[in-house]
Amino acid sequence: MADMCTDRLWTAEAMRRIQADFNRSADTHLIRVDLPGFKDQHLYLKDESIHPSGSLKHRLARSLYLYGLCNGKIGPETVIVESSSGSTAVSEAYFAKILGLRFIAVVPTGTAKSKLDQIRFYGGETHAVDAPLIYAEAERLAAECGGHYMDQFTYAERATDWRGNNNIAESLFAQLAEEAHPVPDWVVMSAGTGGTSATIGRYIRYRPDLSAKTCLCVADPENSVFYDHFETRDPSLTLKTRSRIEGIGRPRVEASFQPQVIDRMIQVPDAASIATIHWLEGILGRKCGGSTGTNVWAALHIMDEMRQAGRAGSVATLICDGGERYLDTYYNEDWLSAQGLDPSSHLDTISELTR
Questions:
Q1: Cα 306 from Cα 35, distance rounded (Å)
Q2: What is the distance of C-alpha 333 from the center of its chain?
Q3: For 11-55+162-354, CATH number?
Q4: How many angstroms separate the Cα of 92 from the Cα of each of 77, 101, 141, 170, 355?
Q5: Each residue of 163-206: pLDDT tens digit?
Q6: Is residue 299 a contact partner of residue 186, using CB atoms and an 8 Å limit?
Q7: Which residues, given as ranges, of the chain have pLDDT below 70?
Q8: Tens digit of pLDDT for each residue in 199-249?
Q9: 11-55+162-354 matches 57-156 in fold
Q10: Which end of the chain has fewer CB atoms < 10 Å from its terminal CB, N or C?
């Protein structure tokens, strides 16, 4: 009984520390982007890059820790293990440091050095393997050290309270409440685990005032199975290639991806995602990560469809993380050339859409 009470006291303190971090962090900003070519269609970007750990994955990491703590999977000596392309691992390392826990990230070979440096900055360890092996290696490491495998790709869609509790959907729609078009026609979201799109799609259906008007579009990059799975509903689809837009797109259908709550998907060429973040830098005055480009490219095309149909309204999407993590890749001409990515024609397309 004494040991149980000691563990419960530790869990209570862990929950307090996570809640204290939440209280210290103001909600992320919602930015209205005024574009001359879209007088009646308004674009909103929810800036998730301002979280303490620098990305949208801060919300997911917090939810996964709370889920693990409340299910008795995480204790004072638990080693936390995660498979991640970077941003989730950065955020989980951040919370591991708060709780005084050892953290190991199993990352795909070639993950951006800046992300690896951030994981280590928070005291985390990194273990690089070929991309298809990250799941099995994370499970093996967790078993070997008696730790807990967070498994974001399975638990992302169930760890977050999609009904509210200041999740990203509740926050987004609350911030739109005083806008000219407070109920957006579309929310656009790319998918890595599929957890955020599941939360948004469920929340839209949960709110009768939203479900009658708001639709969810998921934007998918090259080298990802999500779009084909959405079209075919075949869960066995796999690819041998890896998405070049870090944090989104998967080579297999993840358990957290919930196609039944998605209204539409758009495939976005990688060069278009890159073009969009370079264009967006001129609009916002700062750099964004590649997945933000995927989101905004799809959002601009939806807005163009609305404009052609003579429909006024709003479209909301996310800034997933900042571009400082990608100075060696998406903002590096040599890397783009080596990858065969030429954003120039897509920049012309954006200019035509927005002028």
A1: 14
A2: 25
A3: 3.40.50.1100
A4: 16, 10, 16, 23, 41
A5: 877 799 999 999 999 999 999 999 999 999 999 999 999 999 99
A6: yes
A7: 1-4, 6
A8: 999 999 999 999 999 999 999 999 999 999 999 999 999 999 999 999 999
A9: yes
A10: N
Q: Mind spelling out the 3-state secondary structure of 36-82?
A: CCCCCEEEEEEEHHHCCCCECHHHHHHHHHHHHHHCCCCCCCCCEEE
Calpha distance 309→38 (Å, rounded): 13
For the chain, the structural domain boundaries read 11-55+162-354, 57-156
SS (H, E, C) the chain: CHHHHHHHHHHHHHHHHHHHHHHHCCCCCEEEECCCCCCCEEEEEEEHHHCCCCECHHHHHHHHHHHHHHCCCCCCCCCEEEECCCHHHHHHHHHHHHHCCCEEEEEECCCCHHHHHHHHHCCCEEEEECHHHHHHHHHHHHHHCCCEECCHHHHHHHHCCCCCCCCHHHHHHHHCCCCCCCCCCEEEEECCCCHHHHHHHHHHHHCHHHHCCCEEEEEEECCCCHHHHHHHCCCCCECCCCCCCCCCCCCECCCCCCHHHCCEEEEECHHHHHHHHHHHHHHHCCCECHHHHHHHHHHHHHHHHHHHCCCCEEEEEEECEEHHHHCCCCCCHHHHHHCCCCCHHHHHHHHHHHC
Cα 217 to chain centroid, rounded: 14
Is the domain covering 57-156 a CATH 3.40.50.1100 domain? yes
